[in-house]
Amino acid sequence: MKDEIQIGVLGLGVVGGGTVLALQQNADAIAKKVGARVVIKKVAVRDVSRARSVELPPGVLTDRVEDVLDDPDIDVVCELIGGVEPAHSYIMRALQNGKSVVTANKEMLAKAGHDLLEFAENNHLDFLFEGSVGGGIPIIHALKQSLAGNRITQIMGIVNGTTNYILSKMAREGADFDVVLKEAQAYGYAEADPTSDVEGFDAQYKTAILASIAFSSQVDPAQIPVEGITKVTRKDMQMADVLGYTVKLLGIGQCDNEGLRVRVHPALLAKGHPLASVNDVYNAIFVRADPVGDVMFYGRGAGSGPTGSAVLGDIIEICRNIVSGATGRLGCTCFNNQPLLCMSSLVTKYYVRLLTYDRPKVLASIASVFGDFDVSLESVDQRPQSSDRVDIVMLTHRTIEQNMVSALDVLGKLPTVIGVENCIRVQD
Amino acid sequence: MKDEIQIGVLGLGVVGGGTVLALQQNADAIAKKVGARVVIKKVAVRDVSRARSVELPPGVLTDRVEDVLDDPDIDVVCELIGGVEPAHSYIMRALQNGKSVVTANKEMLAKAGHDLLEFAENNHLDFLFEGSVGGGIPIIHALKQSLAGNRITQIMGIVNGTTNYILSKMAREGADFDVVLKEAQAYGYAEADPTSDVEGFDAQYKTAILASIAFSSQVDPAQIPVEGITKVTRKDMQMADVLGYTVKLLGIGQCDNEGLRVRVHPALLAKGHPLASVNDVYNAIFVRADPVGDVMFYGRGAGSGPTGSAVLGDIIEICRNIVSGATGRLGCTCFNNQPLLCMSSLVTKYYVRLLTYDRPKVLASIASVFGDFDVSLESVDQRPQSSDRVDIVMLTHRTIEQNMVSALDVLGKLPTVIGVENCIRVQD
To answer: What single string gives the DSSP state of each residue in B107-171?
Structure first.
């Protein structure tokens, strides 16, 4: 048995720093858990002269990735640089050199992870990625291991901390999106270019990863319909609250006999739902499965500590596998090939807000259009906005998305309707 | 590689039935995940003629435990009969016969599991018990694997569904304990003899298991101070609500430089705490650790489906280990030997409710006694109960338990105090 297992790290940013620090601080306990000391041999960074948040022994820092990828003493490589390339090539090279790999790189994994998973499995190597979704929340392992005996019918997550912070703050303070976004940027919760977060792309990658594992089917992130939160207004948050809901950006995967419905969009969620009280930068993933029923996993979805915890958990798992000669024991589980179903056939409830002129029979004409498309209304709330304008907020019963789209199209052209202000799906 | 892995089951009650059913229903997917078919060879029950909730092929049911324990073709034994003996002896015999074992038996595990864990580890066998705490919630694996790089400082769980159902219902409906208990018994959520649940013994076993793993130290359940929920009244629930809290039965483990504080008792929990909105028969376990921060795991804490899911997850893990030749890769992690600290040195906040006569200076005399014992008050709420009696409800600042006990002792003897009606710890 090895006395020492040597690790190489690519990247010493937020996650790399958190991983290295936790490994240093808990080294003795980790050695006892693994049965061998886990030692960082090399950390490759772009600029070795830059000040770092962690201290490393002399000679560990390097600006040559080959010092990590090609060193035969290194058994485990942690890729923590992000982005699709060169991360993907580095990981493939590490695997080809017989090293197991840990990554927290959601974008690379969702877009180009499959060949890495297959290569690792075929070569009895581990390729783990717990930190790619939900930061420190152990959702990937739970899906692959503890819940492996279940048939999962729904997985639904608040997987982006930035948007959850913004929506929570809008709900709590009655503030506008733009105002809260600027504040989030000032606190460092949102990036200078917030596109990937607020338009839902970050959630799209994570949802692709979750759905792939939950449904044992490869899910291409590019095929996942995505809507961000930029169109959610203060008014919608307030109306949702009045109706007993909160608005969350959800990554959703559902599986039925016809196939998979995977999507990312804001949704009204009843206040009693376990995800509804997940606020600020916290993430949570809700799983509905047979026979376990409903389970939920909650924690910080990003940052040096949480994601470092996940990466370190993966390192420890690989080291245990090395000690017991079992790397590659848990490979790719995408043995199904279930089709992704299109959004137009989705059946769900909707929240609709229309701005109309305050005229007689306006409501009747709206209800009539909905009726023409088989959309039936659960509740209607009419509120004056000015002397001759009213907001009409409706919740519908379950209806087919295609019908809803058609109805809104017709409604938008009615002379009494000034505009379809918003339409947000309601999630059970 | 084996094409087929044969399983033996002891007991076909609620959990056994759930496990077998899920294994049958998801057999194809499980075979793909494991790399071999998982087949139930024998199920030992006391009475083979009794009607069962699952169908088994002829010859599988037996009333001889040796058909399971001594069959060389059986690689994995699931002990689902409960109780300390003969469960412990059966498991030891299975291990001695070279079989890996799954159990959901919290009482046996907490009281007498250590030698089994050691024997399994020394003989490269798996002994897994995810179903012993929190039903289908994958908390054991999360602690042992994904969170293994963390230093856990606090673990706190709602781990008993019966008491959580009772407390949730008391809070929601303003009902009395006795009334709700009877209703819970009628629905089958509480047993005819509810002692183990309402007095906290069930939570005591589970807390011992959680604390042992979280702090890598063997924790003897008999050493865990336990208080049940029988003294929590409707009035306390209502006052807690007014003060911004909810009352939950918590299993708590904390670790600091001096040692461990492990205990089970009802506690006031601020409504914003993630555990506070866990209601009815749901369980949840909250973990505070460095570097992950706060994480929480939520789900149904008991029943055929949830616990069956956990047992099946363990079976699948063992089967994967068999396929990759790595059984025993994850053994006992109690390599520390941290002392359990006594309750009298606990520092926490308290909720105190006194019934007093409505006389001048009553409050002054009470405050004076608290002051004598260095207990300072955060808030005081005085409510008339009848023409000459008042309820005085106080929240204290953090204080040493020994001082609180002494203060209450003196207060109870004041001529103006009719009684110390309740004293409940407040948990941060």
So the answer is: HHHHHH-HHHHHHHHHTT--EE-GGGSSTT--HHHIIIIITTTSEEEEEEEE--HHHHHHHHHHH
* Token duo for residue A173: 């303070």
Vertex B20: Cα angle to B18 and B25 (nearest 5): 95
Q: Which residues of A are catalytic?
A: 206
Helix (H) or strand (E) holding B239: helix B234-242
Classify domain B4-135+304-323 by CATH number: 3.40.50.720
CATH class of residue range B139-300: alpha beta
- Residue by residue, DSSP assigns B84-125 as STTHHHHHHHHHHTT-EEEE--HHHHHHH-HHHHHHHHHTT-
Helices A161-173 and A234-242 meet at what angle, rounded to 10? Answer: 70
- In angstroms, the separation between the Cα of residue B315 and the nearest Cα of chain A is 9
| Residues carrying CATH 3.30.70.260, chain A | 344-427
Short-list B34, B122, B129, CA closest to B87: B129
What whole-number distance in Å separates Cα of residue A19 and Cα of residue A78? 9
Kindly report the CATH number that applies to the domain delimited by A4-136+304-323: 3.40.50.720
Q: Which residue has the tokens 């090399």?
A: A42
Beta bridge partners of A78: A9, A102
| Rounded-to-integer distance, Cα B123 and Cα B100, Å | 10
Q: E strands within B198-326?
A: 245-256, 259-270, 282-290, 293-300
User: Is A197:A236 a contact under the CB 8 Å cutoff?
Assistant: no
Measure the CA–CA gap between B125 and B321, rounded to whole angstroms: 9
CB A245 within 8 A of CB A324: no
Beta strands per DSSP E along A80-128? 100-103, 127-128
- Which CATH class, in words, describes the domain spanning B343-427? alpha beta
Q: Give the pLDDT of chain A (428 residues) as one tens digit per residue.
A: 679 999 999 999 999 999 999 999 999 999 999 999 999 999 999 999 998 989 999 999 999 999 999 999 999 999 999 999 999 999 999 999 999 999 999 999 999 999 999 999 999 999 999 999 999 999 999 999 999 999 999 999 999 999 999 999 999 999 999 999 999 999 888 999 999 999 999 999 999 999 999 999 999 999 999 999 999 999 999 999 999 999 999 999 999 999 999 999 999 999 999 999 999 999 999 999 999 999 999 999 999 999 999 999 999 999 999 999 999 988 888 899 899 999 999 999 999 999 999 998 999 999 999 999 999 999 999 988 888 999 999 999 999 999 999 999 999 999 999 999 999 999 98
Give the count of beta carbons closer than 10 Å to the beta carbon of residue A1. 8
Active site residues of B: 206
Angle between helices B161-173 and B234-242 (to 10 degrees): 70
ipTM of the shown complex: 0.95
| Among chain A residues, CA nearest to B333 | A33
Min Cα distance B226 → chain A (Å) is 28
Residue from B5, B128, B309 whose CB has the most chain A CBs within 10 Å, to mutate: B309
Tokens of B148: 């293994």
Q: What's the whole-model pTM score?
A: 0.96
**Locus of tokens 């909730």:** B53
Spell out the CATH class of A344-427.
alpha beta
SS3 A187: helix
CB contact under 8 A, A26 and B323: no
Residue of A nearest to B321 (CA): A329
Where does A373-419 have alpha helices with state H? 401-413
Domain with CATH 3.40.50.720 in chain B: 4-135+304-323
Residues in Cβ contact with B199 at an 8 Å cutoff, skipping those fewer than 6 apart: B226, B228, B230
Burial (CB < 10 A; 0-12, 13-18, 19+), residue A5, is buried
The total of other beta-carbon atoms located within 10 Å of residue B268's CB is: 25
Strands B127-128, B100-103: parallel, antiparallel or unpaired by DSSP?
parallel
